[in-house]
Amino acid sequence: MDEVFKWSPAFMTELPEVDAQHQGLVRLINRLGVLHTGGEEVSQRQIDAARAELLDYGQTHFRDEERMFIAAGIDPRHADFHQEEHQGFIDEVQALMTAESERCGNSVRRELDYLVNWLAYHILGVDQAMARQLRLIKGGLSGEQAFEIDIEHRQRMSATEPLLAALNRLITLVSARNRELAELNRTLEQRVSERTAELARVNARLQVLTYEDELTGLPNRRHAVSALEALWLEAKRDRTALSVLMLDADRFKGVNDRFGHATGDEVLRALGQRLRDAVRTSDIVCRLGGDEFLVICPRSDAQGAMQVASKILASRQPHVNAAGELCWSGAVSIGVAEVQTSMNSAEDMLKAADKALYEAKGKGGDRVG
């Protein structure tokens, strides 16, 4: 492909070391242009390596150039401006290297435009001014005298100075635009990252809500069914025991009817905590819905489950509201069932526990069926 920066004799400063390093910068910019726009398959790693080499070479050249004109005694006004120009270039290339900007044709063209325009302006304007002043200093003038004479020279060069001034303004605009685009991309990436994190938090919360009862904080029916099916398969495979307790609050409907659903919710939360406190660490307490709860007892036969049920009954505690009124007696009915060879699914065990529960309720409640 055509070179993005064409070297010409007009760029010569008559300072051999400076001219040689300028041509090195041109070669690196042209190489970056080939990598960016060539038809061959080019990896991002190759492009980043070329940028890094350009940055490293530029920093070396700038240090050499600055040592040279400072040692020669160039006027501080030129030295300060020249060093600011160098630092501006370094900052811009570093920004291009670190910004995760879009990899499209317009982005590539902006980068190459900046590099080419900056180097052309810098050589034709700043470095040529430096070279003229160094020649004057070598001829016996002071740095201050050389600086003032060079200002007069540039004012007389009416044909080129407006072009250099315009090119400088263009570079300033391109640099500002690149910084704005980099900041926009950074801001967008930050927003995307924040939004992704927020979605992850929402999804995690939804996952919790999918398997957690909002009122009591216990695992809900979905979780209960999933856990019981997994434990059922394990019990069948390993021929181990598995039992469940199904229970509900006796005469709970009267609580809602007389004291309202808010009090009913308080009763259910208290009952949920009571069950947590009564069961063993390996047992799983779930709320199926309404005032109906399920306790899954892994690797526990009916006898072990009955002991848990007895402990639940013994932990009975009436619920009294803020006004001192007895809202609920604390009585529960419990149905116990364990896995049997005649059962074909976990649902069969639930049905057996449900049947035992209603037998207990039929006998007046506050007991195990």
Automatic annotation (TrEMBL):
<dbReference type="InterPro" id="IPR029787">
    <property type="entry name" value="Nucleotide_cyclase"/>
</dbReference>
<dbReference type="GO" id="GO:0046872">
    <property type="term" value="F:metal ion binding"/>
</dbReference>
<dbReference type="GO" id="GO:0005886">
    <property type="term" value="C:plasma membrane"/>
</dbReference>
<dbReference type="GO" id="GO:1902201">
    <property type="term" value="P:negative regulation of bacterial-type flagellum-dependent cell motility"/>
</dbReference>
<dbReference type="GO" id="GO:0052621">
    <property type="term" value="F:diguanylate cyclase activity"/>
</dbReference>
<keyword id="KW-0479">Metal-binding</keyword>
<dbReference type="InterPro" id="IPR012827">
    <property type="entry name" value="Hemerythrin_metal-bd"/>
</dbReference>
<dbReference type="Pfam" id="PF00990">
    <property type="entry name" value="GGDEF"/>
</dbReference>
<comment type="similarity">
    <text>Belongs to the hemerythrin family.</text>
</comment>
<dbReference type="InterPro" id="IPR043128">
    <property type="entry name" value="Rev_trsase/Diguanyl_cyclase"/>
</dbReference>
<feature type="domain" description="GGDEF">
    <location>
        <begin position="240"/>
        <end position="369"/>
    </location>
</feature>
<dbReference type="InterPro" id="IPR012312">
    <property type="entry name" value="Hemerythrin-like"/>
</dbReference>
<dbReference type="Pfam" id="PF01814">
    <property type="entry name" value="Hemerythrin"/>
</dbReference>
<dbReference type="InterPro" id="IPR000160">
    <property type="entry name" value="GGDEF_dom"/>
</dbReference>
<keyword id="KW-0408">Iron</keyword>
<dbReference type="InterPro" id="IPR050469">
    <property type="entry name" value="Diguanylate_Cyclase"/>
</dbReference>
<dbReference type="InterPro" id="IPR035938">
    <property type="entry name" value="Hemerythrin-like_sf"/>
</dbReference>
<dbReference type="GO" id="GO:0043709">
    <property type="term" value="P:cell adhesion involved in single-species biofilm formation"/>
</dbReference>
<protein>
    <recommendedName>
        <fullName>diguanylate cyclase</fullName>
        <ecNumber>2.7.7.65</ecNumber>
    </recommendedName>
</protein>
